[in-house]
């Protein structure tokens, strides 16, 4: 398969495919979240306020993580920090920034944070899947070569994944499929999960999936791993500890109750 598009949509120097589909993903995910929030006792107005502040936190976090990942470049060209139209956003930074600010705002609105976080998972996954379609079209990010049947040739010289006519792994497509697979599993299992379980399980599954996908990405490496891999590894470890502690608490609750003397 060959894709001949460059990173910019409609030959505009300010509109990238990634940015265009990211906006579409934010809109769809935000609307789905706002429609689901009345079940948590939130009004539509409150729900959209949460969406707006979470989007702001996500954009700041995504940009900050990207700057840290390419710190040498931005140290030498600090004004490029503000060239937002050039792209450069970290998915993990967006997730962590959006969740942190959004859940803080949920608490300020008098809502329980864990149910809100659970509610955000499915819309978030769908939004991410839509956003990464822009990466499939524009060839973002660059990837290693591949001879697999589904490998893609990006023949536009400005494409991030341009490899001189060679086929590369469709990393963005892998991320689309990862997000949709987790979303489907969550949709089928949501009613069986205890309150507060969806967020850590989704983050762990997404982190593990992106950890594997990152081996075919061409991103900066720190101590042998990419930033996405380190964050994903930390997420998996935290969730494993959470599951272990939850089981310990459950066993303690099932034991005999001590009698008062």
What would a concise description of this structure say?
This protein has 261 residues and is mostly helical. It has helices at 17-36, 44-69, 71-76, 91-108, 113-138, 171-189, 198-213, 227-254, and strands at residues 2-3, 152-154, 167-168, 221-222, 225-226. The relative contact order is 0.13.
Outline the fold blueprint.
Blueprint: E1 2-3, H1 17-36, H2 44-69, H3 71-76, H4 91-108, H5 113-138, E2 152-154, E3 167-168, H6 171-189, H7 198-213, E4 221-222, E5 225-226, H8 227-254
Query: What is the succession of H and E elements?
Result: EHHHHHEEHHEEH
Percent range for β-strand residues: under 5%
Total DSSP E strands: 5
Q: What is the number of helical segments per DSSP (H or I, 4+ residues)?
A: 8
Largest sheet: 3 strands, mixed
Stretches where pLDDT is under 50 for at least 5 consecutive residues are 255-261
Q: How much helical structure, as a percent, in the residues?
A: 55-70%
Strand order of the largest sheet: 1-2-3
Shape by Cα distribution:
globular
| Average pLDDT metric | 89
Output the structural class.
mainly alpha
Radius of gyration of CA atoms, rounded to a whole number? 20 Å
In total, the number of domains comes to 1
């Amino acid at each position: 398969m060959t894709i001949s598009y460059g990173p910019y949509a409609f030959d505009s120097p300010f509109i990238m495919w990634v940015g265009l589909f990211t906006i579409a993903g934010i809109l769809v995910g935000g609307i789905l979240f706002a429609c689901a929030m009345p079940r948590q006792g939130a009004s539509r107005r409150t729900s959209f306020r949460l969406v707006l502040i979470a989007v702001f936190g996500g954009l700041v976090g995504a940009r900050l993580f990207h700057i840290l990942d390419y710190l040498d470049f931005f140290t030498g060209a600090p004004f490029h920090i503000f060239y937002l139209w050039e792209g450069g956003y970290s998915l993990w930074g967006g997730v962590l920034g959006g969740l942190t600010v959004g859940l803080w705002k949920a608490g300020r609105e008098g809502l329980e944070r864990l149910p809100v976080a659970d509610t955000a998972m499915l819309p978030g996954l769908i939004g991410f899947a839509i956003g990464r379609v822009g990466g499939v079209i524009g060839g973002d990010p660059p990837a290693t070569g591949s001879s697999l049947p589904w490998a893609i040739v990006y023949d536009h010289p400005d494409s991030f994944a341009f490899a001189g006519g060679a086929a590369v792994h469709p990393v963005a497509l892998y991320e689309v499929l990862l997000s949709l697979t987790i979303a489907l599993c969550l949709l089928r299992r949501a009613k069986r999960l205890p309150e507060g379980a969806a967020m850590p399980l989704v983050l762990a599954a997404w982190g593990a999936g992106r950890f594997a996908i990152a081996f075919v990405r061409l991103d900066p490496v720190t101590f042998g791993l990419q930033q996405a891999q380190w964050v994903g590894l930390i997420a998996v470890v935290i969730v494993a500890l959470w599951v272990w502690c939850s089981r310990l608490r459950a066993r303690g609750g099932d034991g005999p109750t001590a009698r008062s003397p």
